Amino acid sequence: MSSFVCAEEMQKQNEYIAKINLLIGGKSKRAFVYTLGCQQNEADSEKLAGMLCKMGYTMTENEKEADILLVNTCAIREHAEKRALSIIGRFKHYKVQNPDIIIGVCGCMSAQEHRMNHLKHSYHYVDFTFGTGDLHRLPELVYNALNNGKRSFNLDSEKPLIAEGIEPLRASNFRAWVSIMYGCNNFCTYCIVPYVRGRERSRKMEDILAEVKDLVSRGYKDITLLGQNVNSYGKDLESKTSIADLLSQIAKIEGDFWIHLMTSHPRDASIEMINEIKKSPRTNGHFHLPLQSGSDVILKRMNRHYDLEKYLGIIKELRKENENITLTTDIIVGFPGESDEDFERTIEVIKKVKYDSVFSFIYSPRKGTPAATMENQIPSEIQHQRYERFCQVQNDISKEINEALIGKVVRVLVDGKSKNDDNMYTSRTQGNKIVHFESKKDLTGTFTNVKITRADTFNLFGEII
After folding, report:
1. Can you give the residue range of the structural domain that contains 277?
2. What CATH code is carried by the domain that includes residue 262?
3. CA angle, 54 as apex, 124 and 4 as ends, to 5°?
């Protein structure tokens, strides 16, 4: 069952916030949060920024002028950890210049004991670390660093808790992340997430609905429901609710907005959830369903708990009476033991399904996961050869699908002006396709209709209707 941070603990953190305000004493102090990784990390960073503002800090986009520096790390691949360590290493220079600067490290990388110890013993200028389950303790950690300068290195408890009542400082005023659950129970053999984010724990439906209603009332138009596996939402709650129930309740909220889900696991994709997605115009434009491999042999080695037949059945149901839905997926190339035949099966599947786009990755071993010690690790040269072929096949499919939209009118949510041209705007369809168009009027944050005039693999171009 989900467990929640008690009111007394949240009150204690609010008291630390008040103490920090007194310590700062109205001085102009700035904070910088560097975020790596997934959408959940972005949502976490918005909460960190919200707490820092309550402490009296002003957020800055210039790390050089910050009085407190936080790095919210990712551990999904080795490259992400190396990048985080490189950024943390860069911050040493700021500490030398100003010993009063506070440097903290959080997120998935710091939730691993070996990484926490590495930061403690090799990065002596880091003041504190904490894991993904201890976000609510940021005020306490900052206060201790300000008050006594004692370094603090923390690992999440065996059963991380859910903290409600943290008001995020959102990066956008029309797109928003809403976490509906945390952690994962699936233990895919390549994935570090269950070890760094804990087991599945769901927020109460009433808290989620209240957050979504508040966002819609304030004009938010694109809301993404986040979780490592949103399909299993509610299974750990006493009320035994489900993602289908949640989507049904969100559909009753008045307003003009889109809902996205990120991310879904095929193992828990129920027909009830699929039907809720298809029948609501807020959800029927896009669905992301990670496949990972088109080979049943590799899916079993990955511990994915479904086979290709089940996966394709879900796709068939999603497209039934909803042929225009945008479908995206994740693919791992070069997983241990992947034969040429296994790889070809993946190619066959993407040709058959015809995904609009694919997030594809070359397999990278993660310390602490079963796949890292599996036999038959694929040589890097072969991995890259397969990856290049995969990308070429998928790019051709994506371009073909995009070109079929030429002449059609699509509804988009405008992100803002292009960096290189004040008259060009970038927007996204409900299916998350990027659309560029020209406008003399600032349409940022609004819905508009665009007629597609040109297309390539990754972008659409059009004119306002």
Report:
1. 172-283
2. 3.30.750.210
3. 85
Please return the burial class of 231, using the count of CB atoms within 10 Å of its CB with bins 0-12, 13-18 and 19+: buried
Q: Are residues 211 and 345 in the same domain?
A: no
- The one-digit pLDDT tens for each residue of the chain (465 residues) are 668 999 999 999 999 999 999 998 878 999 999 999 999 999 999 999 999 999 999 999 999 999 999 999 999 888 899 999 999 999 999 999 999 999 999 999 999 999 999 999 999 999 999 999 999 999 999 999 999 888 999 887 767 889 999 999 999 999 999 999 999 999 999 999 999 999 999 999 999 999 999 999 999 999 999 999 999 999 999 888 999 999 999 999 999 999 999 999 999 999 999 999 999 999 999 999 999 999 999 999 999 999 999 999 999 999 998 989 999 999 999 999 999 999 999 999 999 999 999 999 999 999 889 999 999 999 999 999 999 999 999 999 999 999 999 999 999 999 999 887 778 999 999 999 999 999 999 999 999 999 999 999 999 999 999
In a domain, 1, yes or no: no
Domain membership of residue 236 (yes or no) is yes
Per-residue tokens: 23: 């310590």
Would 75 be classed as within a structural domain? yes
Q: Do the beta carbons of residue 346 and residue 449 sit within 8 Å?
A: no
Q: In the structure encoding, which two tokens stand for residue 340, read together? A: 């040429």
* Angle (nearest 5°) at CA 436 between 449 and 412: 30
Model confidence, pTM: 0.94
| Domain harbouring 459, CATH code | 2.40.50.140
Q: Is residue 164 part of a domain?
A: no
Asked if residue 198 lies in contact with residue 248, where contact means CB atoms within 8 angstroms, the answer is no
Judgement on whether residues 263 and 145 belong to the same structural domain of the protein: no
Does one domain contain both 201 and 269?
A: yes
Instruction: Based on the fold, state whether residues 100 and 202 are members of the same structural domain.
Output: no
